Every structure is written in C-alpha cells, then in structure tokens.
Amino acid sequence: MEIKQDFDIGRPLGKGKFGNVYLARSKENHYIVALKILFKSQLVKSNVEHQLRREIEIQAHLKHPHILRMYNYFYDEKRIYLILEYAAKGELYKELQKCQRFPEDRAAKLMFQMADALAYCHAKKVIHRDIKPENLLLGLNGELKIADFGWSVHAPSSRRATMCGTLDYLPPEMIAGGVHDEKVDLWSLGVLCYEFLVGRPPFESKTSNETYRLITSCKYSFPSHVSQNARDLIQRLLRRIPSERLPLVGVINHIWIQEHVQKGDQVLAREPLSAIQLPIFAEQDFCASD
C-alpha cells in the first residue's frame, strides 16, 4: 500500500507533536477515512514508539460503536500511516468549549455511551487510563467515539503501577503511586461527567500541588444548576477507595442515565475479539463520498 497511489488526501483534520491527521478517500472505492501520518523521527526522539505500538495493538482489536475504529496501518522509511474511522463532528473538547457546558440530557447520553464502551474495554482486559474530553471525538450523529488509546494497556493481571494520564483526571491511587486496576477509569468517568455539566473538572486549581491535595482529599463542590440525580452519580464514582466506586453496569442503569436515554440508544454492539475481522475498507464502516 502506498499513500499517493491508494488515497486522495484532503484537508487537515488536526496537527500534533508527532504528525498530522488528514481527511482521505480511498481511490479504489471512494470511502472516506481519517489518515493519521506520524513521523518516526519524532516518535524516536520522544521515546514513545512503545506507546504507539501498544495503541495500535489495542485499538485495532476493539470493535464497538463508541470506540473509533482503526482499520489498518502501514509505514515507509520515514512515516507511519494509521487508517482510522472518520468522526465527522470532530473533537468533543472543542464542542464543550463552544457550549461551555452540556445540558443534562446530552451529558447523560454521552455518559451512557462512554460507560458502555468502557464496559466493553474492561471485558477485554483493556484499561484506558487517560479519559478526558481531548481524547474523545463525535460521529456524524453526535455519538461519542473514544479516540486515543496511547496510555491504555491490556492488563490480564488487572493491576498496574505506572503513573500516567492527565492531572485533573488522575485518581488518588495513581497520585499515591500505588498499584491500580480498571477502577481508575471509573474515577475518570466521574470527573468527565462533572466537566460535561459544569464546564471544568472538579479538582481544577491554580497549582498542581493544590490539585493533588484536592484529589487526595476528594474535595469538590457542585454549582446549584446540577441536578440531585446527576450529583448522586458523580458522587458514587468519585470515591477515594476504588472498590467503593459504582461499577459500569451501575452507571448504565443509574436513574439519571435512564431518565435521559431512549430505548433506541441502548442497542449496542457486542462482538468478541476472536470474531473481529479487520478489513482495510468495509462499506458499513465508512460514509460513502460522492
């Protein structure tokens, strides 16, 4: 596979430290994809080749309506090319900035989609470890897509001791440097829900030390506009002791989620890893272009 022979390259969708993302179209069948082009020299310089390898290995084997698909990858002497699902409505972070905060019905639907995607990941022994708005995209109908698995890990043993992720979203056990398991994602889900409803994370402060202190003491407050049911869900997720956090099935069935989610939203994909096929292009996975 060669980039210029196989794709028409369109407008840039984003730029990052290690490369760029472009809208692209397969010349063979005209399907639209996002083409992520990474520079090997930058990856080596920053010593993140292992992180990219892990991201490819994990994301290529996950198939769920709320996880961005990675269809294939290839490389040449200088670059690595990732063929990704195109999320037509772009970055959730920018949408949240534009709206300042989401109304509760929208936040609840996004939380439902996020919880279901994480339940799928955890069933495959995949811990994400870096949930935040910057790592989420929106599909054509505004549906959520988890897009960045750079910090995720496939952990059959279920317990890790590496500190990673973003400060505002780190749970107490990771700040303390102890071992952690998939319950770190439950804490981050609570932080995400708060940010959806308030427009900022609950432990945000002027200094890192103060943020650390607020997280370890689990000290935060709600603005008056946040409903009691939404508060209840967030409080059940933001528990200092990991085993006390509401499990994902509890999130999905929580009264605040259920009162905002329509029955049609609850038809979700379930497919074991062993059954997943990874074609370069599959018609049902792409928006057809003209």
From TrEMBL:
Any one of the GO CC terms: midbody
PANTHER family from the UniProt entry: SERINE/THREONINE-PROTEIN KINASE IAL-RELATED
GO MF annotation, one: protein serine/threonine kinase activity
Catalysed transformations (reactions): L-seryl-[protein] + ATP = O-phospho-L-seryl-[protein] + ADP + H(+); L-threonyl-[protein] + ATP = O-phospho-L-threonyl-[protein] + ADP + H(+)
Compartments reported by the entry: Midbody
SMART domains: S_TKc
Highest taxon above the source species: Eukaryota
Residues reported in the UniProt entry to bind ATP: 17, 36, 85-87, 134-135, 148
Family: Belongs to the protein kinase superfamily. Ser/Thr protein kinase family. Aurora subfamily.
Keyword Transmembrane found: no
GO BP of this protein: chromatin organization; chromosome condensation; cytokinetic process; meiotic cell cycle; mitotic sister chromatid segregation
InterPro entries: Aur-like (IPR030616), Kinase-like_dom_sf (IPR011009), Prot_kinase_dom (IPR000719), Protein_kinase_ATP_BS (IPR017441), Ser/Thr_kinase_AS (IPR008271)
Protein name stated in the entry: Aurora kinase
Active site: residue positions: 130 (proton acceptor)
Record bears the keyword Nucleotide-binding: yes
